[in-house]
Amino acid sequence: MAGTNITSGRRMQVYRALFLLNRSYHLIVCRLADLQELRIFSPTRLRELRGLTQEIQTETNFHLWHRFGKIRNARDRRLKKR
User: What is the pLDDT of residues 39-67, one digit of tens each?
Assistant: First the structure.
């Protein structure tokens, strides 16, 4: 895992990737809703698939925000010592 010294450019890359992932998760949920209208999957199965998609999205977001929270906390502690 990378250290707490992350450049603003690198951070921007992470935020962009996170934005694109979240947009993709949203689109997956929308397309699953489209499939519901076509009655290809049972409503129960589609509910499960939406839930799994949102669970993965939540886990991804949590991991990244938790990681950056640690970086921010370390920076804040360092700045308080000055």
Answer: 989 999 999 999 999 999 999 999 988 88
- Residue linked to tokens 């935020």: 15
Distance CA 63, CA 82 (A): 30
Distances (CA, A) of 11 to 18, 24, 39, 74: 11, 20, 42, 16
Cα–Cα distance between 50 and 70 in angstroms, integer?
A: 30
Distance CA(74)–CA(68), nearest Å, equals 10
Sequential DSSP letters for the chain: ---S---HHHHHHHHHHHHHHHHHHHHHHHHHHHHHHHT-S-HHHHHHHHHHHHHHHHHHHHHHHHHHHHHHHHHHHHHHT-
Contact 32, 46 (CB under 8 A): yes
Which tokens hold the place of 46? 């589609």
